[in-house]
Design brief:
alpha/beta; 7-stranded mixed β-sheet; about 25% helix; about 25% strand; globular; binds thymidine-5'-diphosphate; binds magnesium ion
Length: about 475
């Protein structure tokens, strides 16, 4: 038998090196090379060491009719929404998230819901003993469901068990970092082991039509630990996250071969597990009260879902030579841009002020459409003018201070209407195009927004003007 070749694999980027070095040539990270023995793969995979001549595979015509297998709905609406309307048979999903965020809790609840509907569900945990999973299930009130449990980390044993149990519909592997195979002699969690384990599970899913959910740990910078190739291999990648110690959790889809990405599912962690939050706008708007300076409501979108979020700004005079700019939940470069546009084109000066920006409820916004709401909150704070409580803002601001149209205007307005808002400050789209009971203030220039806000209260503070 040929001697297994030794190779050195970077645990950060997965690059294979023939000799050890302190620094990876590819990603320039230090001390990430680990010695691993080159091996085959589990279950006749593509890395099989004996070279065969190959055989012809049957080709299918693109135009031929496919057999349509319906998705399996979990009955947890927020989970179904995030994965695009239920689990696709034969697909593999990767769920990543920080420790303690609730991955195992969510998947236990999903497993129980499916088992209750008569599906055959297997939950394999490499981190907890079966008794611990049972305890959690008791706490979640689902201990009476026929979910099959196993505490196992050896990939070959797991596959043998799955093949033996009658065709599971859903298999949960918690987590891929604990899987190990006899083929590679490196430790569990190393690139080779994670890749082998994932490959084996994906092959099982494709072969049997079972849905496989893999739980992945994340590194300290929030990426799923192990090689990036794992994310390429699976059909869908979901991140389960929460911001700043809040008790609600967001399941965010970043890749989905069978549905839209950028979808989110919102949950709240309670003492009885995760509860769905079907109207997240109420959550992110928090308790709004009158006379709060520097707050504006942004009509945002998460994928195809409208979400209203409160944006809070505090502009306070500063004694520092270099005033502070602190942002939570938004891009600090974008804040600098908005401040520069307000200074250069609208004559509002922030040079002697500290600026703090916060997105309520620990929510994180990535959309440029929030520019206008941020600008409104900043103007409200610096001018001492309370913005109308029943008004939403959305629109992208260009460097020339123009307010640019954004997508999904109608959905944003509908959500605002649903939550009792009466007016919207937004880019010019042409009112005849939009039918909304809200009063629409369509604007082309940021200066118009500044003028509207400052004119609304005669007792305002004087805006520090660049022209004076
Ligand atoms: P868990 O699902 O074990 O997290 P992960 O698998 O992502 O590491 O969740 C653990 C946390 O959730 C733990 O801190 C306790 C909390 N929790 C509740 O608050 N309520 C519950 O009903 C359950 C089951 C867990
Ligand atoms: Mg867990």
């Amino acid at each position: 038998m040929a001697r297994a070749k030794i190779q050195y694999i970077c645990q950060n980027c997965g690059t294979i090196h023939s000799r050890w070095a302190g620094k990876c040539d590819s990603c320039a990270d230090w001390n990430t090379l680990v010695e691993e023995r080159e091996g085959g793969s589990i279950g006749n995979g593509p890395l099989k060491s004996t070279v065969s001549k190959g055989h012809a595979v049957t080709l299918t015509n693109l135009a031929s009719n496919i057999e349509y297998a319906p998705r399996i709905s979990s009955d947890i609406a927020e989970l179904d929404r995030a994965i695009g309307g239920g689990f696709v048979r034969g697909s593999a999903l990767l769920v990543g998230g920080n420790p303690g965020i609730g991955k195992s809790t969510l998947l236990t609840q999903a497993a129980a819901a499916l088992a209750r509907k008569g599906h055959n569900v297997v939950y394999v945990s490499g981190e907890e003993a079966a008794a611990q999973i049972q305890l959690r299930a008791q706490r979640l009130g689902v201990s009476d469901t026929p979910v099959q449990l196993a505490a196992e980390t050896n990939a070959e044993n797991i596959l043998a068990t799955l093949i033996q149990s009658k065709c599971p519909d859903l298999v949960i592997i918690d987590s891929i970092q604990t899987l190990w195979s006899d083929i590679a002699d490196s430790a569990p969690g190393t690139v080779t082991q994670v890749r082998l384990g994932t490959q084996a599970m994906i092959r099982f899913a494709k072969k049997t039509g079972a849905t496989v959910i893999l739980v992945g740990h994340v590194t300290k910078d929030g990426q799923i630990a192990g090689p990036r190739v794992v994310e390429h291999m699976v059909d869908a990648v979901l991140y389960f996250e929460s911001e700043g110690g809040h008790h609600y959790r967001i399941l965010r889809t970043v890749k989905n071969r069978f549905g839209a990405t950028d979808e989110i599912g919102v949950f709240e962690m309670s003492d009885k597990g995760l509860c769905e939050v079907s109207n997240p706008s109420e959550l992110f708007l928090g308790e709004r009260n009158h006379n709060t300076l520097g707050t504006a409501v942004f009509a945002g979108m998460e994928g195809t879902r409208p979400i209203l979020v409160e944006i809070q700004a505090l502009v306070a005079s500063s004694s520092l030579g270099m005033p502070r700019r602190a942002v939570i939940g938004w891009d600090s470069n974008r804040l600098s841009m908005i401040l520069a546009v307000l200074e250069a084109h609208c004559g509002v000066r922030f040079g002697n002020h500290d600026v703090y920006l916060n997105i309520a409820g620990g929510y994180r916004i990535a959309e440029p459409a929030a520019d206008l709401a941020v600008a409104a909150a900043l103007i409200s704070s610096i001018a001492g003018v309370v913005l109308p409580l029943d008004c939403v803002y959305f629109g992208e601001i260009s460097l020339s201070s123009g307010i640019r149209p954004v997508s999904y205007a109608i959905q944003r307005l509908k959500e605002a209407e649903k939550l009792g808002f009466k007016q919207a400050v937004m880019p010019r789209l042409g009112s005849d195009k939009i039918k909304s009971p809200l009063r629409l203030d369509e604007m082309d220039k940021l200066l118009e927004t500044v003028a509207q806000i400052t004119a609304s209260n005669p007792q305002q503070k004087k805006i520090p003007s660049a022209r004076r």
